[in-house]
Amino acid sequence: MLHLQRSWGWLAGMLGVLLSLAPSASSDVSASQPNILLLMADDLGIGDIGCYGNNTMRTPNIDHLAEFGVKLTQHVSAASLCTPSRAAFLTGRYPVRSGMVSSIGHRVLQWTGASGGLPTNETTFAKILKEKGYATGLIGKWHLGLNCESASDHCHHPLHHGFDYFYGMPFSMMGDCARWELSEKRVDLEQNLNFLFQVLALVALTLAAGKLMHLISVSWMPVIWSALLAVFLLTTSYFVGALIVHADCFLMRNHTIMEQPMRFQRVTPLMLQEVKSFLKRNKLGPFLLVVSFLHVHIPLITMKNFLGKSAHGLYGDNVEEMDWMVGQILDALDVEGLTNSTLVYFTSDHGGSLENQLGNTQYGGWNGLYKGGKGTGGWEGGIRVPGIFRWPGVLPAGRVIGEPTSLMDVFPTVVQLAGGEVPQDRYLTIQKKFSFPQTQQHLRQMKMSLCHCSKGSMKLFLDEMEGQAAYSYGPSD
Fold first, then answer.
1. 349: closest CA among 141, 43, 71?
2. What is residue 123's three-state secondary structure?
3. Does residue 34 have a cis bond before it (omega within 30 degrees)?
4. Phi, psi of 197 (to 5 degrees)
5. Of all helices (H) and strands (E), which one includes residue 233?
6. Alpha carbon distances (Å) from 459 to 3, 330, 466
7. Rg (CA), the chain
8. 171 vs 31, 104, 467, CA distance in Å?
9. DSSP states of 272-336 as a string?
10. What is the DSSP letter of 435?
């Protein structure tokens, strides 16, 4: 493993610098534990937002955050898919360290009822803030697992990862939840069931024909059981869509299922009501609220009053509805008198999806000048995400920062703001080396670790003068 020493200002460092530039009158606000509101979109492309260069999509509320806050222009996620990216966001660690990434097969959790999820021994920023006296809530999408050994143990539930309150989907939106193209898992399941049906039907017919023609000596019992199993598999294949919707498309409040299957036209109003209720209940603070939007993942469930309003079809309608939700949440902060005491952050879990289709129409986001998108590796379109902070009176309005930053930087940032300590018993991708006084300018010395496994004639060498690594032909050592 090579360690490259490089002086980079990480996100907490930048916030510290900005705080040092803020008016001295803000010192009383910033010295106390601030409320923290984290807004995360699902599958939103960085090019879908007005303040990131889109002049045809209307996102006035997100643009307002950037106008009166700090915009990050080199912000990336740890992965180009939901499950690994969200695991990294909550833990500050690359998802491979928590076992939340796979290089083969499905790269995200595929079933709510499947065994697996974010390990309970992982430390999330919600756990640390809860220990520091914060009320912690998650409203919206989870997609980091639910159960371990039974349908009721809920070992991977948000309430076991530092959140006091949860309302939303333990899984994720998908095409099977509404009229959309079939999901990969449903197609695979139907194909497997149909194949088994054909095998059992062939077995039943072969046994029956052989017995009737006196070619084989066998009782009728294997014939009957083969035929019954074939009929069962055919029936299951026919109803598998309804089974998936019932199994995966539901809403929970804490450990209780509230709607199964969920009624989609009610989802947006319900989410907003939950956010407003949480803010009202905890306005005396401090609180951490993560609003994990179901927008703009397929099947792009959109309220009737937003349909046909954008210049970009159903996808644009869904983006503009999400922006309206952001505005409603910011208005709720104003109503409760929380605006000046709340750090607001907006981002997406990864880049926009480019391959969603319904019939012959393609739906999905725009990743601006970056090639690739959700699920792609090697190209930046899958990991480039918006990053906007707003904290009136503390962070200067209209600041644009081009420093490389990551969703994983949020972990040490919010922990430090809350007065907590970054765990020392595990390797964090972003190692905390920044003291956070409000009046001093500090940057960290970031230790970058580069792992390399080599076979054959390629090797990795380090240029000590430039601090850069590169590949070269030669004996591997």
1. 43
2. coil
3. no
4. -60, -45
5. helix 220-248
6. 16, 52, 18
7. 25
8. 38, 21, 43
9. HHHHHHHHHHTTTS-EEEEEE--TTSTT----GGGTT-SSSHHHHHHHHHHHHHHHHHHHHHHHT
10. -
93 and 358 Cβ atoms separated by less than 8 Å: no
Torsion angle of the four alpha carbons 397, 403, 406, 410, in this order, in degrees rounded to the nearest 10 = -40
pTM: 0.78
In the prediction, which pLDDT does 15 show? 59
Q: What is the distance between the alpha carbons of residues 323 and 448, in angstroms, rounded to a whole number? A: 36
Q: Give percent helix, percent strand, percent coil of the chain, each to the nearest 5.
A: 40, 20, 45
Alpha-carbon gap, residue 41 to 348, rounded angstroms: 4
Residues 309 and 307: their CA atoms lie apart, in Å, by 6
Per-residue tokens: 367: 């990743």
Position 177, amino acid: C
pLDDT digits (tens, 9 = 90+) for 377-431: 778 999 999 999 999 999 999 999 998 999 999 999 999 999 998 888 777 765 4
Q: What's the DSSP call for residue 168?
A: E
Q: Which two tokens mark 222? A: 């294997």
Domain boundaries, the chain: 7-173+249-449, 184-244
How many CB atoms are closer than 10 A to CB 22?
Answer: 18
Catalytic residues: 82, 143
pLDDT in tens, 17-75: 445 444 444 444 444 899 999 999 999 999 999 999 999 999 999 999 999 999 999 99
Q: What pLDDT digit, counting tens, does each position of 100-149 carry?
A: 787 665 666 666 667 778 988 999 999 999 999 999 999 999 988 887 87
With tokens 């803000």, the residue in question is: 26
Query: Which residue has tokens 């460092």?
Result: 13
What is the average pLDDT score of the chain?
Answer: 80
7-173+249-449: CATH number = 3.40.720.10
